[in-house]
Fold this sequence. Notes:
The chain is mainly α. It is 46% helix and 10% strand.
Amino acid sequence: MAEKTIAGKQINVTDDGYLEDMSQWNEDVAKEIAKEIGIELTDKHFEVLNYLREKSAAGEALSIRSVGKSGVVDIKGLYKLFPKGPLKFSSKIAGIPKPTSCV
């Protein structure tokens, strides 16, 4: 566990850069994490991020397939929004734990 300054806040992150505490997340934190990854967030990104946060808070396991069936975005759209690791990067930006399906 490490502490990192993101959007002017001291935030505890894992060695992989995922937030330790979901309550430390806000849109500014998301924007800064996305910027580090090279993604500029749009309203559609935030729709996906909020969906992921809701499902994670409910204790549901996340997979690319489940997000693709969510009605928020299809699998192809998820890859467009978060290239080179759609679930990995969307989860990191959403401030949720790394999904078990991610390597």
